[in-house]
Structure of Olfactory receptor:
Amino acid sequence: MALARWNQTRVTEFMLLSFSHGQPFLFVLFLAIYLATLLGNSAMLALVSLDPHLHSPMYFFLGQLSCLDMCYSSVTVPKILANALRPQATISYCGCLAQMFFLMACAGAECAFLAVMAYDRYTAICQPLHYTHAMSWGVCVVAATGCWLWGMLDSAVHTLLASRLSFCRAARLQHIFCDVPPLLKAACSNTRPSEVALHAASIFVGLSPFLLIIVSYLRILVTILRMPMATSRHKAFSTCSAHLLVITLYFVTANLNYNRPSSGYSPEANTLVSALYCIVTPMLNPLIYSLRNREVRGALRKAVRGWGAPGSSSSNV
């Protein structure tokens, strides 16, 4: 009995079965995506920091989102790149828990940031006279700090529960990185507490912000439709369209990743869903904002052309 227990708990590394052998093509593909993610989000962060016309609460949170997306990719992609060229993909036990902690922290923080950004748009469009007070810089800093701490607290719970699981000595994860679902599938001990925590997080960390976003945008839609001028409606819609695209992309892929059917996906589909959620989405976010947001496009054109003359003042809406 004691020997069997020893064989379950003495796990020093996991084998990642989604990589069956060295794959140079995947290395090149993930490297290109990673570099594009770092370049796009760094450029967005630089624009928000350096352009005075983007010094508003909406772009402050957009800069936080860009920083978060770079962290997202940096948690998973470097290890994927290393494993893509190895005969057998592995990750150490401690490295797996660390990767899972930062991954879940980013996931929880992004849900919170998207909800705060929706509230920012609601206040700017539906309550413009109260916008300066409701979204003061002090409020923004507190909200941003709360989003990061919210993600870390949620992640700490999942990581603590995962550290108490027992694994067979030849532990195998049918995945390309460490995440809660594949860890639970590979565990040899009772996973019920972790499953309950994952379902609870889906409600409080995922569903609650999503419902707040839905309510905010329903109120925004009603307000926009009541605007008398078509130009005002178009301007209001343009400030929200990029955020709505990012919200849709993130929550759809997150739901596919964490609320999968009980039968699960095929290994190929599982890898694709996880790649979309954690790797491709952070690359697309700055592209969506740069294409759909007029102020960001203007700041980007000025940066590329080296123009130093200030443009027209941007509105809160």
